[in-house]
Amino acid sequence: MHKTKSHYFSMIGILITLAFSPILSLAQTDYSVLGFWDYYSDAENTLYKQQCAISFQSLIERKKEIAQLKTESDWLQRQQLVREKLLEAVGPFPEKTPLNPVIVKKIKKDGYSVEKLYFESMPGVKVTAAFFIPDGKKKNLPTIIYCSGHSSLAFRSDGYQQMVLNLVKKGFAVLAFDPYGQGERAQYFDEKEGESRFPPTKEHSYPGAQLFINGASSARYMIWDGIRTVDYLLTRKEVDKDRIGITGRSGGGTQSSHIAAFDPRIKASAPECYITSLEYQLKTRGPQDAEQNFMNWIGLGLDQADLLEVRAPKPTLMITTTRDIFSIQGARDTYHEAGQAYAVFGEKGNLTMVEDNAGHQSTLKNREAMYAFFQKHLENPGNAQDEDVEKFPVEELYVTETGQLSTSIQSKFLFDINSELTKSNMDMLHGKRKDLERHLTEVKAKAMEITGIDKGSIGQGKLVFSGQTEFDDYFINKYLIEQANDQVIPFVVFLPKQAKNQAVLYLDNLVDKKSDETYSIPIQLVKKGMTVIAPDLPGYGALGPGYLKGDAYFGNTSYNQWFAGILNGKSTVAIHAEDIATLLHFCNDELELDDKRIIGMTKGGFNSSLLHASVAGVHFDGMVFIDPIMSFESIVSTKEYKSEYIPFTVARALPSYDLPDLSAAVAPENLVIYHAENANGNDADLDDMNAYDLVKKHYKSMNKENNFTIIPAGSHGNWMDFIDKMW
Description:
Structural class: alpha/beta
Oligomer: single chain
Number of helices: 22
Mean pLDDT: 93
Strand content: 15-25%
CATH class of the largest domain: Alpha Beta
CATH architecture of the largest domain: 3-Layer(aba) Sandwich
């Protein structure tokens, strides 16, 4: 009897093992390609390093150009070229409109007074500020604009007050203003929490990304605030128009160097803890928040040194520290290069640099060097020693009653400016769409140009087979494509044993390489006899997100990596498109895809990458987009959009084209948009759907209206049903 029971339970065990063996086998499957290749352990940084390689090459070419400048005439021509390129990268600026200044209150202190005020840099855009005026002489004072770094308090923080009040005690008038997203200009202020949803860097980058898509930038409007600050100062009798200086630390160093480069009325500039070189910035902390990045800055052949050289020979002081977050070597290299321009103009002494052994901070040595610099060049001699000063409580320097424009007198912010740009851009795009045939022809060329897609890089590399796993009805084959500079494209192929004449390129952020749930869609497809190619694209899967999260990091999305492409003109989707084309080039030979119909299938924002691959010449017999981005328009129109969409967008795309235009260009091939989301991640609404009316129109004009389908979220049916219909 004991033997019988033993035999019975043994048989049960065998049956259970047999019943669940496919599941157990799958559960142990490792889908990772690069897990085998230790040499590529740094592959998660592929996207950023690829962007850097492009930028470094441009910077090398720039150095060659600078080395050719020998005479004053050479440098004058260079300055003119730089002015034009800077304006191309940042402009055009808005028109000048009435400032409508309002002085809210005047505070009298020992030795000086403070006027709390605001003015309008653009209609409805209010800039809160404080004007510190020393006692005594009331006319033609040397005046300094103080730009605040990334503090939520702006100039009200103790460190910035220390410098502002010392300058005032030394006889300078000082106007300190709030940048967007700081001080009283928080753009995402939460009344319940009593603070912004974001720290200052994200206050700049979150709306800044939307501005980039519209062809503008945070830099444009932050610089414009500085230019209008100069305009305001020139209305004041206390100010000597020929003795205006500007300074600021960190983000204030950014603003002061940018504003001084664009406004020739500023005589002396002393940016602190910012100036370096873009080469070393990319090699250290990478691109910073949105306003620190000009559109195609590196691609246009520019570097931070140009911000100083374009001003030569006007007085400039670089204030630096050896352990700054901005590379000291980059600062030294920039000082050396810019010094050549100043020397040629016969004013070598007008460019100076002070360096202290410290971190990202204002030191006593550097503060006193700054005071002495302005005393000399704004002709206001005196004692340069840093004094103890009595600082204001933060609330005492509030211009508004609540301490925030958004909860008091109201103001427009970057999102409001962007909304106006969106309307203008979309009006232009709708105008182009009236002649749809011509527009779609132009769209392909325009998308190639704007994204930076380079067909010359497609098909380069070597295909490497990396192993096979067998299952009951299919194989999993692993490959990688080795390319120059240790770049790779890893991918998995699900190969059915009874293959149909059907293949699917599947794009998703396949992160968990040991999860069958992650690969559930490819598994479903291969079990129906379809060959499925599932690659990792730069920034995702085994190729991301990388170590560079930067200062504008939202969830799992690094805006800074996307900004790297804005600096050199090569978008993330351009890199994706080229890799998709290269991948299919190799698969055509290895998997004989030429004999198969190929469908492109995506989840999330990869529909943008696939559509741009189509622009690059990749042909698909159909496309299925699950939970896709509906349009760039929806992202720039939504104040609280999903940050994970940003890497799939393209700077400057609007008003030239949008995703519906690329979708229309796919016609007459089958296209299914399944369970679309709007920009804030909710189910797409009627407006989102209406953006695809032009797609419907174009398919109908080709008598192929049945080849285009939008399936709203919540609708019945499965995506597999639509794939089956495509065959």
